[in-house]
Amino acid sequence: MTRPGRPNRTRRIRAWAELLRVSALFSVPGDALAGAAARGLRPGPGTAYAVGASLCLYQAGMALNDWADREEDAVDRPHRPLPSGRITPAAALGAAGLLTAAGLALAARAGRPALTVATALAGTVWAYDLRLKHTPAGPAAMAAARALDLVLGATATGPAPVRTAGTAPVARRGAAARTGLRVAAPAGALALHTYAVTAVSRHETRGGATLAPLGALAATSALGAATAIGALRKPGGTAALARLLPTALYLGTTTGPLLHAALNPSPALTQRAVGGGIRALIPLQAALAARAGAAGTGIAVLGLAPLARALARKVSAT
């Protein structure tokens, strides 16, 4: 027999799942894992803290986004949790604050450098939602947040380089520069993809934009080609397949929906392109990890893609 309170509880859970875009959460862990791979390190406890911090900060951003856009959503998306009255604005704002605090606390467990990066990430998220979203700087802010998320994973994984009296300053600077370059390349790849998808998302409620999906199609195609070329330059065998498969899945996930949105820029097709762009982060993260030499990490990240697709059928990622 169904308990009287169960339908209400189910509706509340559904409302919070929609507010926090739980289907998009699967696009988050790969940032930290790709960051660890970029440093040439195995994921460890620090990586786990970074993943937890990233998930909390991502959900904080989702809750804050709906709080900031509640008046706009009342017109364009009256079915969303806040305008429909299923969640109060105060509850959404409170959740954003609590999740931000939890994210910073988890990052602190990974060390002071990780906390510094997480603080910058949290500041970027709040600045985007409260100020930058509807300005020309919006896509760049989102791109910076995704890049910082990868840097958070790289910073949190493993001990910091030890400085000894016998190590020359030039050698220390050279090692730090090489590490920075290894991390900057995948962070830049995620930033480029995020910028392109965010530019498309600015038109998802009303459609009508052709140039944004065309630009995103060009950017993601170039990014996929560059990733594939980088994978082909390394030794073949099973490792080559682990590098090329996620790249092919990345291109397959992005190009079709973006092309459809460019040819017919309706709100429905534009939203589908944005959702595909969010899910495409997973194979991109897998490709970046595999390209850095962590084929096992890449395969593990790729395993999140079917889960994200299945949950997206029930809860929209946008």
Model description:
Helices cover 75% and strands 0% of the residues. It has 14 helices and no strands. The two termini are 36 Å apart.
Key terms:
318 residues, mainly alpha, 14 helices
Concise summary:
Helices cover 75% and strands 0% of the residues. The chain is an all-alpha fold.
Radius of gyration: 20 Å
Beta strand count? 0
Weakly predicted, low-confidence segments = none
Strand content: under 5%
Number of helices: 14
* Mean pLDDT rating: 89
* Distance N to C terminus: 36 Å
- How would you classify the helix and strand content by structural class? mainly alpha
User: What spatial form do the alpha-carbon principal axes imply?
Assistant: globular
Largest sheet: none
Helix amount: over 70%
Order of helices and strands: HHHHHHHHHHHHHH
Sequence-ordered SSE layout with sheet pairings:
Layout: H1 6-19, H2 29-38, H3 45-68, H4 70-76, H5 89-109, H6 112-132, H7 138-156, H8 169-201, H9 211-232, H10 238-263, H11 267-279, H12 281-291, H13 295-302, H14 304-312
